[in-house]
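Forum: Protein Structure Q&A
Topic: Joint prediction for protein chains with partners

I've read a bunch of threads here and the consensus seems to be that you should model interacting components together rather than docking separate models afterwards. I'd like to see that in practice. Below is the full input, 902 residues plus whatever partners are listed. Could one of the regulars post the assembled result?
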Amino acid sequence: MEEENKRFSTQPLKGMEDSYPSNLRLDNWIIDQIRDIIEVYCYEEYSGPLLEPIEIFAAKSSEELVQEQAYWIKDKRNKKLILRPEITPTLARMIARKSQEFKKPIRWYSVPTCYRYEDTQRGRRREFIQFNVDILGENSLYAELEILNIIIDILTSFGATSEQFQIYYNNRRFIDAICDFILKVPKNKISLIYNLLDKSNKLEEKEFLETINDNFKEEIIKQGILILKDAKSIQEVLNKFNNIPDQFLESQGYKELSEIENLIQDLDITEYCSFASNVVRGLDYYTGTVFEVFDTGKENRRAIFGGGRYDNLLSLFSNEELSGIGFGMGLLMLKLFLETYNLIPEEIMNSDYSDVIYIASINIKQSQYAHKIARELRYEEFPCIIDYRFENLGNQLKKASELGVRVSLILGPKEMEQNRITIKNMVTEEQKIVEFDNIIDEIYNIFDDLD
Amino acid sequence: MEEENKRFSTQPLKGMEDSYPSNLRLDNWIIDQIRDIIEVYCYEEYSGPLLEPIEIFAAKSSEELVQEQAYWIKDKRNKKLILRPEITPTLARMIARKSQEFKKPIRWYSVPTCYRYEDTQRGRRREFIQFNVDILGENSLYAELEILNIIIDILTSFGATSEQFQIYYNNRRFIDAICDFILKVPKNKISLIYNLLDKSNKLEEKEFLETINDNFKEEIIKQGILILKDAKSIQEVLNKFNNIPDQFLESQGYKELSEIENLIQDLDITEYCSFASNVVRGLDYYTGTVFEVFDTGKENRRAIFGGGRYDNLLSLFSNEELSGIGFGMGLLMLKLFLETYNLIPEEIMNSDYSDVIYIASINIKQSQYAHKIARELRYEEFPCIIDYRFENLGNQLKKASELGVRVSLILGPKEMEQNRITIKNMVTEEQKIVEFDNIIDEIYNIFDDLD
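Posted by a regular:
Agreed with the consensus. Here's the joint model:
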């Protein structure tokens, strides 16, 4: 009884998306393909609550995420709950809760939906699905290599090449060592350098220079930041700085980064991986290796996703030391990347009735018989549809044809009386009458002929 | 640097659950099995945003759901958003948005996570997964039958029998017709009758009688409610009422219910379906057929899930008339039901490394070779793990054995030099040295022998 003008909008909220079957088929196709890769690396799936106490995010994620982009709720005790903007703090909590039960290294993945109340733009929504893959309790740099390999396998499994993507890696301890031993940056200003490097791709040259000048007086630091903004190899960094002290060369950051570089060469994945000293990642919990995967096409040069190593994952919850490395890959960004390079087969989004058996009947008296046949077919795992019109056979078959059905069964009074079925190959338009007991074989015959 | 007493709790919020891999395996096993059934009925999966404007729920769901049990958020424009307590209003919005694009009948399903801020109890959580299956735009009662068949197929596919569950069905228009034509209930008191019937199983006899007496004076209405509370067949209802007017026998409600009863007989599913006049469902949008699936075991007699027909699904959003019927099945309740009758295979929750290839190495020099082999195996879709210790072979093989691995590869300097691999059957403890190129065949041989 509502009047026209009282009707509600049919649009989803801003930044949210309706997943119609065709969209969901595409999402599921991508997710399943990634799952297949992750599972040959023996990662197990977990999931956790969408709502968490806001404190466990405030303490470890970025301030921007919690202060500006969080969706939150007050519960009946006036406690703030957050709709998770990412899943890592939940992972930490879950591991801390039962750490002793799990053999290390722990290889886990999850496909959570997450929420960030931010301005929407290409590749970003307020509600989004993010693949999360983590290996925990493996301190050697082989964990880094495993994660890099998984990323390469995922992207190449879709057909992407090293001309289309590149994993840019760096190490936060390496940047720390440069700040400490070469640039002598005061401790309280190191996070500013991280901030600047993180934004260096997004800021205009002029703006970037201004921000440096506003914040630093020392010429060596200003020059240092500009070097770190652009350097494309460890050697380049070393060459551009004068007077590199031994302390730096003996630092964990320098050593780790050099070792990673060697391992990448050993494993023959240099094609996909490059050093980039401006990659530092925005989240506060990263401590060592960090990386960002870039679309390297000329026109769409941009980060697709990233990750890194975080030590002391459990520190909010327990004494236990546990280091991990992982990545969070937004499904939407990945989809845009795949679309850019035509890596999504067109037919994925179409609904597919080619294996469906369509049951049409001449009149209502065959209703019971139609259901009996459907039960038999479904028991044999054939998807099937009964047309409930039970009249006007022509329209029923037209519908089957429109859906793209390849096999229809036609039931009339005579068929029913004799326990037979008319089976029609919708492609060749041939039809014949067969015994009820032979129907499964006859269906297989038609599919065999057509395939 | 946190001190012990500043640590956060590792427990999830009340009414929420951490899904560790073993739990998630079980959930996914159940979900996949249900999916398989739904897909032979040709239902397509959709999903929608978790957040919706609260109005579309306030208008169509139950008042309790929105007033008392909703988790909601105020957005930056002070608009109330709800964390969906169910998905039907979203379904309605999505269909209304693009109705013309979809051929009727529309068969859709979804597996949304939903939220209700209610007291937690056995079988209920504040965050829960609910299977939703709907057929829309099919006005004939065959849609009802299809939904009943799907439910029966789902439950029997897990091995449940008609001794363990029963679908109790009713029709709201039938109850309306009784109220109108037999009991002459004033229009404004009909919803009270629904309320009473809905709670009749939960209230004590005494309390139930008191509530009737408090609300109704007319003896015929009081008696009528008591009849409807217990009647187990349409005939029983008719027998217990005197003077049934023709208007009642000609009512849509009576006719529909009688026809459903006939169809249930025709389709030979009487074993699983019974009439129960007190089943009316709590949600406001149901208009015709309603049903509840009960665990009928003596000790755990309780509703597992339910559903029904809703006409004018789209009325909040458009002029189009569209009728649908469907059900929402909570995963947790289903799981409790299956557990009660031992219908969940124990091994489902165990992690399964029986197909994993474990790569152990004598020393670090085989690292590169190990990765080369792993790449080959993963390319052939064998899940495999490299032990990154690269020392103490005994410990590596012990780990493989603990995990339940059946095939390990052992790499030493000699193997590497000769491009060979030692392959070990972890069950028989036999091992031999094979050529790199034959490794896939040799793995298949061992699995064939063991299976």
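The mean pLDDT of chain B is 93.
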